[in-house]
């Protein structure tokens, strides 16, 4: 069984890559600055345009690797709830729903076009039973509260300790929260911190926050021109969307600062080869699992 859920993530050592990059570039002399509110606002609009432009869903692929990285999400005979923050086109929600028979997925995004696309992709990919377990909504937890129907004020205040099974005050929060290539889109560390604290408020004690995002010195980071850098480890793409590249230390500070306990945290270092050019590409992602303390 362990072989089925194993995933390969160590083609090279991240520290070797760091030494290679830092010896080739004088990164210390690059001006470090805070991202402006103008950039953050522009990025939110850019994501709406991005998802509207790709409204047919052809651009997106399901993240079938997700269940190998996070086998907790594939427990087909267990009843649990997942909150997916930054659902995009439903690339993470759909594999979870297809792999399970009882799991419920609440999927949100700051982009209305993204939420519409998730619904459209779900209609195509899921059977009726699976579609009934998907609920989507528009929300940006970095600057607004997650809805009361997901977790009401009373349940949050008691940390879900006094909820009566006889009273349907809300859905009772989430057992898992997934942040898959979503946190980097915010780029501003204060926004990230706000989002994580809001997510923790609806995560049940003992629940887990599952994270995968761009890692420091990933190939895409190194290919950005200097004039597209808008803050430390943060770059603006030509379409206006932002991308932040995480170190493990930055992830640890953000998540433990929100009150979570570290379970797993590592760089995934994968070497890919462009089939056309035969050029090797060193991809770096950060993989992490954090747990909300269970005080019972």
From TrEMBL:
InterPro entries: METTL2/6/8-like, SAM-dependent_MTases_sf
Highest taxon of the lineage: Eukaryota
Keyword ATP-binding: no
Keywords (A to Z) from UniProt: Methyltransferase, Transferase
EC number: 2.1.1.-
Keyword Transferase carried by entry: yes
GO terms of molecular function: RNA methyltransferase activity; S-adenosylmethionine-dependent methyltransferase activity
Listed Pfam families: Methyltransf_23
Single GO biological process annotation from the record: methylation
Biological role: S-adenosyl-L-methionine-dependent methyltransferase.
Family: Belongs to the methyltransferase superfamily. METL family.
Name the UniProt record assigns to this protein: tRNA N(3)-methylcytidine methyltransferase
Organism for this UniProt entry: Selaginella moellendorffii
Lineage: Eukaryota, Viridiplantae, Streptophyta, Embryophyta, Tracheophyta
